[in-house]
Amino acid sequence: MSLKDITSNLRAPINTRVADKPTVKVHSVEWRKVMAGEPVEINPSIGHGYKVMTVDEWSARWKPNEAFQECLQCGSKNTKEHHFMQTWCRGKKKWESECLCLECHSFSFRSYCDPDFKTPEDFEKERWQELVKGEAGKPVLAN
Q1: What distances in angstroms separate CA 125 from CA 39, 93, 131, one per listed residue?
Q2: Are 105 and 69 contacting, i.e. CB atoms less than 8 angstroms apart?
Q3: pLDDT tens across 114-133, in order?
Q4: How far apart are CA 3 and CA 99, in angstroms?
Q5: DSSP category for residue 19
Q6: SS3 assignment, position 31
Q7: Which residues, in sequence order, are CB contacts of 88 under 8 Å at separation 6+?
Q8: C-beta of residue 87 within 8 angstroms of C-beta of residue 93
Q9: What's the pLDDT tens digit per position in 71-130?
Q10: Phi, then psi, of 80 in degrees rounded to 5
């Protein structure tokens, strides 16, 4: 799906929050190390081992989010997205995104969920519960 699909036809508000550390646990641990000047693991796609990195070095492989460039804290458009997850099920959508502002070092988190969104597991569970409820009202035939 494209960014246009993700941000179009929204039927509920986008939830937002600003934090001083990332929501994703592994990035939260790395963020603490970067800010403390401790070595962090080098991305395996470019090498191995550990290195003391600046914020710019640590986030160098991340891309900007075209739909949500603005930092929710300072309004800067110098942001990079480190977390994005989306789920589409039966035409309903749910997603979350988090960007790091390279100016004020805050994390802008945004999430959205269609009001009637259900995971495949929830949809099947409700379907089976309705089926069982319907069957419970029918008489049992004796042999």
Answers
A1: 47, 19, 10
A2: no
A3: 999 998 888 899 889 988 88
A4: 15
A5: E
A6: helix
A7: 1, 94
A8: yes
A9: 999 999 999 999 999 998 888 999 999 999 999 999 999 999 999 999 888 889 988 998
A10: -135, 140
Instruction: Provide the 8-state DSSP code for 64.
Output: -
Q: How many angstroms from the chain centroid is the CA of residue 43?
A: 21
Cα–Cα distance measured from residue 143 to residue 116, given in angstroms and rounded to the nearest whole number: 43
> Environment class of residue 22 by beta-carbon count within 10 Å: exposed (0-12), middle (13-18) or buried (19+)?
buried
Whole-angstrom distance, CA of residue 73 vs CA of residue 79:
11
- pLDDT tens, residue by residue, 38-62: 999 988 878 889 999 999 999 999 9
Q: Burial of 95 by CB count in 10 Å (0-12 exposed, 13-18 middle, 19+ buried)? A: middle
Q: For residue 101, what are the β-bridge partners?
A: 79
Structural contact between residues 3 and 66, judged by C-beta atoms closer than 8 angstroms: yes
Task: Say what the pTM is.
Answer: 0.78
Pair type for strands 15-19 and 79-89: unpaired
